[in-house]
Write a structure and sequence with these properties.
The protein has 253 residues and is of the alpha/beta class. A seven-stranded parallel β-sheet has the order 3-2-1-4-5-6-7, with helices on both faces. It has one domain: NAD(P)-binding Rossmann-like Domain (Rossmann fold). Helix 4 runs parallel beside helix 6. It has nine helices and seven strands. Helix 1 links the parallel strand 1 and strand 2.
Length: 253
Amino acid sequence: MDVAGASALVTGGASGLGWATARRLAGEGARVTIVDLPSSSGEERAAEIGGLFAAADVTSPEQIAEAVAAASAEAPLRVVVNCAGIAPPAKVLDRDGAPSPLGDFERLVRINLIGTYNVIAQASAVIARSEPTEGGDRGVIVNTASVAAFDGQIGQPAYAASKGGVHAMTLPIARELARHGIRVVTIAPGIMETPMLAGLPQPAQDSLGAQVPYPPRLGRPDEYASLVAEIVRNGYLNGETIRLDGAIRMAPR
């Protein structure tokens, strides 16, 4: 699919993997709408790439519906990339052996999994009503899981569950949306150079990178963005979760 002249929506687009993706899609000619929280730098980021900023919480059907409407008003909405998410650590039991607050688990699953589903639902409803391309394509939705979906570490039960859910719903949603000419693919990144990791001391970053078989370094946001671009281009990629991790398999801790 050629994104030139089409509309693309990227959640979590003000930083990290989302920002790299927004820049890449804009560079390929897409009219990009960045979706992020009102407190983010989304307005400034969108201005940098000549796009739009839609302040929204991914868990809100109303706010995401408005963001999708704004994006589709610019041009036919062809690409949606879900990068919004959080990753606070929390064990099942705290240091005193008491259960961790259930609300912490619920919040993470609500943002990472339910938020992703909400964006898919709101966006696909609009894409399904658009005119298809000459090849019959209407759009592609790219989600972000994590290697934690498969190799979750101690302290990651909520994060692993949320990302495992994103992986698990990829195929059934791809099968459902196939009749509308919409593909659904998920990327499961490994240890990436996100703003969170960038705040660690360099020796700590080097230590994390050394755990990766090859190349022995952290993944780069532009490598994630490059894979998104390839997924958009390659019309036979569908219903799959692709690990982008340098062959790492995470240890228990």
